Amino acid sequence: MTTFQAVIPVLSSGDLARDIAWYEEKTGFRNVTDQEGYAIMQRENMEFHLQWHHGNDDDPVFPGVIRIWVKGILPIFEEFVQRGTVTPDKLRMNTSWGTNEFGFYDLNKNAIFVMEDVE
Q1: For the chain, percent of residues with pLDDT exceeding 70
Q2: Alpha helix positions (H), the chain
């Protein structure tokens, strides 16, 4: 079983409605707020936020990186393969830095990594 541990970053969005729909379909995170230009995406005890940006020089959409720490990575990896979020070859087991992990990019080029410590 996958148990999420901690995360709460704010990622840039160039199209908030599109990105909310993408995250709901591809990751199972759901928008739990009704704010203009801002979304709070939650799943179990984890959350991250999406903030809309104009995408111009004064207010650029800039990619970020988040790492979602879990226990029991295989079930969530298999779920994300079924959702079409990642391909089966993306899981890296027993990395030299002591993790099992996989990653993907959202539609704004934000990098999302799901990882667990190797026990």
Answers
A1: 97
A2: 16-27, 73-83
Task: Report pLDDT digits (tens) over 102-119.
Answer: 999 999 999 999 999 997
DSSP E strand stretches across 1-119: 3-6, 10-13, 30-31, 38-43, 46-52, 65-71, 99-105, 111-117
Give the start-to-end residue ranges of the domains of the chain.
Answer: 3-117
**Entry pTM:** 0.80
Q: Exposure pattern of 11-25 as b/e (b: 16+ CB <10 Å)?
A: bbbeebeebbebbee
Give the 3-state secondary structure of residue 112: strand
- CATH code at 3-117: 3.10.180.10
